[in-house]
From TrEMBL:
Lineage: Eukaryota, Metazoa, Ecdysozoa, Arthropoda, Hexapoda
GO cellular component: nucleus
Species: Papilio machaon
Any Pfam family the entry gives: Hydrolase
Name this protein carries in UniProt: Rhythmically expressed gene 2 protein
């Protein structure tokens, strides 16, 4: 199927349109120093990843239906730094600073090729958006990296109530009455682009959509068509510009 048949294109956010300036545990370490943290970023890496996983398993989707997302992140921060700071440290202040900084370009930058890919897809007449497992800060982040104006819609898992790889998140977006959205779009007319083979590629396929994977993992070529895999958005943009993109 050629790109001419695609009427709606969505992107994942993290590691697709957006990149971390430094790994989260490194930034946690940097800020933690101001509050008395003396350990290494490797120590904090294990604690952050473990506590994020614990919180996600107990209160998935950033605490949706259990608490507000800010309190969810505060618990992650407090558990990560538990026993790692002086007894008089302002842990709430640290958590709030991290929550706020992760809205900004202190922590995020726009992936190379993002503007160009969106421009090419727009020229094909595609309706453009984002579907991401994210909390509501995503809208502000995309505004801060100056890409929001190229998007027709932004849906986060927290707002929708479903998380990838649940195909329902794709079905939900397709059913929404979004201003400017072409009528009578079918799943076969939709394309999702992301970096995670399970949450992006296979999940979109399970919803009946077309999908492309942004990854330099060559092992994926054994389980999905190699023409559906691109190392980065620059390579994807080149394929579009040369009319060599095959999404079927």
């Amino acid at each position: 199927m050629s790109l001419r048949c695609i009427r709606l294109v969505t992107f994942d956010a993290t590691n697709t349109l957006l990149k971390f300036k430094v790994q989260p545990w490194e930034y946690y370490t940097i800020l933690g120093r101001d509050y008395g943290f003396e350990g290494s970023d490797e120590d904090l890496k294990l604690r952050l990843l473990d506590n994020y996983k614990v919180m996600w398993n107990k209160y998935p989707n950033f605490g949706k239906n259990h608490m507000n997302w800010e309190d969810w992140w505060r618990q992650v921060v407090k558990k990560t730094f538990d026993g790692q700071l002086p007894s008089n440290a302002n842990v709430d202040g640290l958590a709030n600073q991290l929550i706020n900084d992760y809205k900004t370009t202190k922590c995020w930058y726009l992936t190379d090729g993002s503007h160009e890919v969106l421009n090419y897809l727009r020229n094909y007449g595609a309706f453009l958006g984002v579907i991401s497992n994210f909390d509501p800060r995503l809208v502000e982040i995309l505004r801060n990296v100056k890409i929001d104006y190229k998007l027709d819609f932004i849906y986060t898992s927290f707002d929708v109530g479903y998380t990838k790889p649940d195909p329902k998140i794709f079905n939900h977006v397709l059913m929404q009455d979004i201003p400017g959205k072409p009528r009578n779009i079918q799943p076969k007319n939709c394309l999702h682009i992301g970096d995670d083979i399970e949450k992006d590629y296979k999940a979109a396929k399970a919803a009946g959509w077309n999908a492309l994977l942004i990854s330099n993992n060559k092992n994926y070529q054994e389980c999905i068509p190699k023409e559906h895999i691109f190392q980065n958005l620059i390579d994807l943009r080149m394929a579009i510009s040369k009319n060599k993109l095959n999404v079927f």
